[in-house]
Amino acid sequence: MSNQYSLKIYPAGRGRDIYRNIEICGDNTLDQLCEVIIAAFDFDSDHLYEFCMDNRMFSEHSYQSYPEGDDLSTDVALDEIGLCKGQKFTLHYDFGDDWMFTISVSKISEVQNKFEPRIVKAKGSIEQYPDWDDDEFDDDFDDD
Predict the structure, then answer these.
(1) Average model confidence (pLDDT) for the chain?
(2) Gap between the Cα atoms of 137 and 64, Å rounded
(3) How much is the pTM?
(4) Among residues 28, 29, 60, 76, which one has the fewest Cβ atoms lying within 10 Å of its Cβ?
(5) Quick one: DSSP state of residue 77?
(6) What's the CA gap between 133 and 113, in Å, rounded?
């Protein structure tokens, strides 16, 4: 038996107009949670990240995607980290652009069967690179 976590995820400061509600099993890892969040917001999934359990970047209470030394790893099941209803923590994604996603635990319940993580509600959208100009990038590499 495992837990099911109902989570509301939103870019920091944007919870009313842009968010995703996700359901995920407790035997899924933080790495898998990150994959679901990044896909849900249609972001590129090629950046470093950390889960900040105390909502502070690079703190000793963060789970790192590529841990060094004694740092906590994101390769840990959700059931193992002791989440509780009402808890808020942060996904810090892309250490260059510093995307911060607030994660709020809405509900925890027991489930008999595993299931794939799923988006149950979505509102609004956000661009990962809103100032990116493809034409400008292409001009830099034009051979003409």
Answers:
(1) 89
(2) 31
(3) 0.86
(4) 60
(5) B
(6) 45
pLDDT band at 134 (very low <50, low <70, confident <90, very high): low
Beta-carbon count within 10 A of 70 CB: 6
Give the other-Cβ count within 10 Å of 78's Cβ.
23
CB 104 within 8 A of CB 88: yes
DSSP assignment, residue 47?
A: S
Decide if 126 contacts 38 (C-beta within 8 A). no
Confidence of residue 44 (pLDDT cuts 50, 70, 90): confident
Q: How confident is the model at residue 38 (pLDDT cuts 50, 70, 90)?
A: very high
> Closest Cα to residue 33, out of 1, 80, 85, 86?
80
Single out the residue of 14, 51, 16 nearest to residue 35, CA to CA: 51
Check if the beta carbon of residue 40 is closer than 8 Å to that of residue 121.
no
User: Parallel, antiparallel, or unpaired for β 99-111 and 88-93?
Assistant: antiparallel
